[in-house]
Amino acid sequence: MSRKVEMNVVSAGWTQMELVLLFYGWEACDPAHYWGPGVRDSYIVHYVHEGHGTVYMGDREYPLSEGQGFLILPDTVIHYEADAEEPWTYSWFGFRGVQAKAFMQRAQLSEEHPVFTAHEPNMMAALYDEMLQAGTSSLPGGDVMHQSLLYRLMAALIASSPIKEEENPLLSTKETYIRQAVRFMENRYSQRTTILDIAQAVGLDRTYLSGLFKERYGKSLQAFFLEYRMNRAAELLRNPMLSVSEVAHSVGYTDPLLFSKMFKRVTGVSPKGSRVRD
Questions:
Q1: Which residues form the HTH araC/xylS-type domain (predicted)?
Q2: Taking the domain 4-159, which CATH number applies?
């Protein structure tokens, strides 16, 4: 069989958003075709449409077939190989973002458990085609369609998790606190809101709440809120009609100099530099 590959790059620019699609592709692999061992710098979900193959991560191996898939985590060594007799055909979706780790945790996908069986195989199988249609459409809004399809992928992965959130009371309680805190931040990021304000709104000790964010997102509550504000600021900076000072006030900073310092700390560039890059 002749190997066939399709690869589509969606975003090579700003990747500090909550969730952003980077690329997607499809491949009908040759017998025994393999990748790795190696690491990638983003999350990549592979879904097997037909055939067989094996994923190797750590000291474990996972044989997979049609209707199953696997997750590549950033900076995690992985090796995967198509079957020599019935090689797999798979599609893949690469993404990053502040919420990426949290979505994967909700889907219960991790280095210890990187594989899944699709709850809705037909929907998973159709996602690549819909991505391709969005990318080739002449109508405006293709980027928005890509993002909506990425969120559908997240929902499908969560639905495919082996233990549902409602079956784990402890997980559900923690998730409720985190969602309440995130909603509060979404509504109050433009005001002079403190970490104590967020904790009091949720009804938890701020140290405990920060620990929940560290567990879920890999960063403290303060770091998460700072990143959230700077993500919003980056979006506003794309509007040339807004001054840096106006953007600063729009995300809760009365001091433009402090805002510029925080923005550069998070993004690596100054607000003005961000505009030049875009």
A1: 179-277
A2: 2.60.120.280
> What is the distance between the alpha carbons of residues 65 and 49, in angstroms, rounded to a whole number?
8
Cα angle for residues 234, 237, 239 (degrees, 5° grid):
135
**What is residue 156's three-state secondary structure?**
helix
Strands 20-28 and 89-96: antiparallel
Within this chain, domains 4-159 and 167-277 share the same CATH topology: no
Amino acid at 211: G
8 A C-beta contact, residue 47 and residue 90 = yes
Tokens 């805002």 belong to residue:
259
* Phi (first) and psi of residue 129, to 5 degrees: -60, -40
- How is residue 121 written in tokens? 């195989």
Instruction: Dump pLDDT digits (tens) for 145-169.
Output: 888 899 999 999 998 887 655 555 5
Distance of CA 118 to the CA centre of its chain: 18
Topology of the domain comprising 167-277: Arc Repressor Mutant, subunit A (1.10.10)
The amino acid at residue 15 is T
Query: 110 Cβ partners below 8 Å, 6+ apart?
Result: 73, 104
Half-sphere exposure of 222 (CA within 13 A, CB side): 7
From the list 176, 182, 273, 191, the residue with the least C-alpha distance to 228 is 182
Domain boundaries, the chain: 4-159, 167-277
For residue 50, give every residue at least 6 positions away whose Cβ sits within 8 Å of its Cβ, in sequence order, or none.
66, 88, 89
Q: Where are the alpha helices (DSSP H) in the chain?
A: 100-106, 121-136, 142-159, 169-188, 195-202, 206-217, 221-237, 244-250, 256-267, 271-277
> Alpha carbon 72 to chain centroid distance?
12
pLDDT tens column, 211-227: 999 988 888 999 999 99
pTM over 0.85: no
